[in-house]
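[User]
Um, tokens okay?
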Amino acid sequence: MIQKFEVEGFDAFVEKVDSFKDSDNPIYVLFSGSKDSRGKSWCPDCVVAEPVVKGALEKAPEDAVFVYVGVGSRDFWKDKNCVFRTDARTKLKCVPTLMKYGGPQRLEEEQCANVDLVHMLFEDA
């Protein structure tokens, strides 16, 4: 059964993925603009992509780990020195970004709302 987690911020993201580093479980990460008190992201593309990605999880391997990561406020994200942009583990250019952690596979922006591309990423375990 796929394990699903939601975390907020870079440190929580690193802590969560590091907790699986000794397993062989494939880890998929969706980076998204953080949500407000009503549960809505400031990022319109993220709002569109989230249900597509979560709905496509049935194509992911049974032992997969899925981590939804809120990258912070719009102002925090837009800073060129934002840790999500600069850290070698993420090197994000945009949100939403869906990646297979530790590998080159990633989808960005409107690609994350394309169910066929999301299925391909999940099936390429």
The chain is about 30% helix and 20% strand.
